[in-house]
Amino acid sequence: EHPPALGGIVVLENRFRELLNKALKDINADGRYKMIVNSMMVVDAAEGLNISSLVLSKIDELYEKGALTE
Q: Per-residue pLDDT tens for 14-64?
């Protein structure tokens, strides 16, 4: 079991991960992206492949709609 302060961080991380997964599913609902990787795995790539802004916008949209309370 985590100390109280760490427990809150774990909950926050889990909620963010849930929101991120929902955003990615929405963004890739049409299957146009064959692979989505996190920044820790990419050494170099064409700027046009970076969908970070799109993902962050979708996360904001989902958060404002209350996606975490569903």
A: 888 899 999 999 999 999 988 887 766 666 777 777 888 899 999 999 988
Instruction: Give the closest residue to 32 by CA, choosing from 43, 48, 56, 16.
Output: 48
- What is the model's pTM? 0.67
DSSP string, 3-61: -HHHHHHHHHHHHHHHHHHHHHHHHTTT---S----TTS-S---GGG--HHHHHHHHHH
Q: How many CB atoms lie within 10 A of CB 27?
A: 17
Instruction: Kindly state the greatest CA–CA separation across the chain.
Output: 43
The crossing angle, in degrees rounded to 10, of helices 52-64 and 4-27 is 110
